[in-house]
Amino acid sequence: MSASFTSALQAAQAAAGTQHYPASTLYVVATPIGNLADITLRALHVLELADAVACEDTRHTHSMLRAYGVGKSGGQLIALHQHNEAEAAEQVIHRLQQGQRIAYVSDAGTPGVSDPGARLAAAVARAGLRVSPLPGASSVTALVSAAGAVAGEGASSGFAFIGFLPTKAQERQQAVAQLAQDSRTLVLLEAPHRIADLAQALAVLQDRPVTLGRELTKQFEDIATMAAADVPGWLAADPHRSKGEFALLLHPQAVQTDGLADAHRVLALLLAELPTKTAVKLAADITGAPRNALYDTALAWKRDAEQADD
């Protein structure tokens, strides 16, 4: 048993052991996003109690369980990831029908939010079996809690989780054009090898504040807020800033009334199907926005796409 978590396991048994954990139940368990200490006592207890643990990566999960001192054999780990979720769900359902308790964990954070788990939970529910969530760490809520995103006058309250934007440059630009019209707090995720491309795409949002959360809960955690236009320069100023997993938060903005955001959305949609000059002319005719301004925007998007594809 891992010495550092011995007392935690004992506390988990004392705090959660007297609660009821029905058989034939899928327990969806949130796990840390970087700091092993961010595990709940109930999660530790259920991981010990479970007859099997379905997981995104068996090697990663075996290492995590070993760090906690939770003993599970290889036969008690079920690989369930985005490429086999439908098939592996049938195996989980079969075990649940036999009266087993199955825990599901993704590689980090809360399953089913951006990681696999949603299809599994839906399949188990369709089979008439119980799904029980064990909440915990999430990069989404972690960043929202630290960003201080307060809706101002004319802006919508609440937030929307967007996740990963498309990887292709033109599709990503279209997605950003749509985000520009959403006045709510918006949360995105991105991998380190694509963060520079995303930063360039978001730069068209100009003065809209963006909070970047890098390596959240880990030793080199970095949280910074700046205008969207300044994000590419901030990343380029220090090569270490492009390392690690990212969560990004677009702060709420006042609803735009000049029609430019809508013109950009129309332009992005037309550019996906038409030559630049034709798309610009039609966007100007449809929205009434200045043709020269739209043409400059289209050229800027094209340059960004070419740089991203190099």
Explain this structure.
This protein is α/β, with parallel strands linked by helices. It has twelve helices and ten strands. The chain has helices at residues 6-16, 41-49, 58-68, 85-97, 118-126, 139-147, 169-179, 195-202, 231-236, 260-271, 276-287, 291-309; strands at residues 25-29, 52-55, 77-79, 101-105, 130-134, 159-163, 185-190, 209-214, 222-227, 246-250. The strands form two sheets. It has a five-stranded parallel β-sheet, with helices on both faces. Strands 6-7-10-8-9 form a five-stranded mixed β-sheet, covered by helices on one side. Helix 1 (6-16) crosses helix 2 and helix 11 (276-287) packs across helix 12.
Give structural attributes.
alpha/beta, five-stranded mixed beta sheet, Ribosomal RNA small subunit methyltransferase I, elongated, 42% helix, five-stranded parallel beta sheet, 310 residues, 4pyrrol_Mease, single chain, 12 helices
Compose a concise summary of this entry:
This protein is 42% helix and 16% strand. The protein has 310 residues and is an alpha/beta fold.
List the helices and strands and how they pair.
Layout: H1 6-16, E1 25-29, H2 41-49, E2 52-55, H3 58-68, E3 77-79, H4 85-97, E4 101-105, H5 118-126, E5 130-134, H6 139-147, E6 159-163, H7 169-179, E7 185-190, H8 195-202, E8 209-214, E9 222-227, H9 231-236, E10 246-250, H10 260-271, H11 276-287, H12 291-309
Parallel strand pairs: 1-4, 1-5, 2-3, 2-4, 6-7
Antiparallel strand pairs: 7-10, 8-9, 8-10
Assembly state: single chain
Got a strand count?
10
The residue-averaged pLDDT reads 92
- Side-by-side strand order of the widest sheet: 3-2-4-1-5
Ranges with pLDDT <50 over ≥5 residues? none
Globally, the shape reads elongated
Q: Mind describing the biggest β-sheet?
A: 5 strands, parallel
H/E element sequence: HEHEHEHEHEHEHEHEEHEHHH
Distance between the termini: 50 Å
Helix/strand class? alpha/beta
Helix count, per DSSP?
A: 12
Helix content: 40-55%
Rounded to an integer in angstroms, the radius of gyration calculated over CA atoms is 23 Å
Strand percentage lies at: 15-25%
EC number: 2.1.1.198
GO molecular function, one term: methyltransferase activity
Domain RsmI HTH: 260-302
Protein name: Ribosomal RNA small subunit methyltransferase I
